[in-house]
Specification:
The chain is of the alpha+beta class and 230 residues long. It contains 7 helices and 7 strands. It has one domain: HIT family, subunit A (2-Layer Sandwich), CATH 3.30.428.
């Protein structure tokens, strides 16, 4: 079957959740193109995301079942930041600012969680200006600047949140009206492809393949040695 014509609804229906294969400790999931752990670390997976509007878009996903990164312990968040910093360093090959994004639901089934109900951090290269675009394009959201060492330590309890992290600038917002795939919509608008926000209709598998070719087998042992001290 042509990879560009895979039935995404059938793929999603096979798994207990979109990232059920990650939390079960598997190396790969039901989608043979994007459900692949590029690092095989003990506590986190690095996965090229379906719907990669740009090449180099990956997710860092805890293997522990948890709704948002806010729900991890301080030590686990520290490990996540170290891993994301290593990924960010390697994504510098794209010669663009690296953006880190999270939709943080406070309850299962929230639109903020995009139907996934599992914490994950988006990391992707984008042209200069995305931060300003997000901060000014939605009057319904107030963005608060937070600590860039452990931003989740300042995120309010029991509230859905959006988190955006670019360089040393980190911002959080608490949406009153929940929106599924909020940041995917913003990325699609920013790069001039607004119709590509939904990974179910625009999986962008070719970008996923390029990301896999560039980074598969590169991260696991390097992160273990250099970041986690293993």
């Amino acid at each position: 079957m042509d990879g560009s014509r895979l039935d995404i609804s059938k793929i999603n229906a096979k798994a207990p959740s979109r990232f059920g294969w990650v939390t079960s400790g598997a190396a790969c999931g039901p989608d043979p193109i994007c459900d692949i752990d590029l690092a095989r670390l003990p506590d986190f997976s690095i996965v090229p995301t379906i719907g990669s509007i740009v090449e180099g878009w990956v997710l860092v996903i805890p293997k522990q079942k948890v709704l948002s990164i806010k729900g991890l312990t301080k030590g686990q968040r520290r490990d996540l930041v170290q891993i994301s910093d290593h990924v960010e360093h390697d994504l510098a090959v794209y010669n663009s600012p690296i953006v880190k994004l999270e939709h943080g639901p406070s309850t299962k089934g929230s639109l903020t969680g995009c139907g996934v109900d599992q914490a994950h951090l988006h990391i992707l290269p984008l042209e200069v200006g995305f931060k300003e675009f997000v901060l000014t394009s939605d009057e319904k959201l107030d963005w608060l600047k937070v600590d860039s060492v452990d931003p989740w330590s300042e995120v309010a309890q029991d509230k859905d949140y959006y988190l955006m992290w670019i360089g040393n600038d980190c911002f959080v917002s608490y949406p009153e009206v929940k929106t599924s795939q909020y940041f995917r919509r913003k990325v699609a608008q920013f790069i001039g492809k607004p119709e590509h926000w939904d990974y179910k209709t625009a999986p962008n598998y070719e970008n996923v393949r390029r990301t896999r070719q560039k980074f598969q087998g590169r991260w696991g042992s390097a992160i273990q040695r250099g970041i986690l001290g293993a």
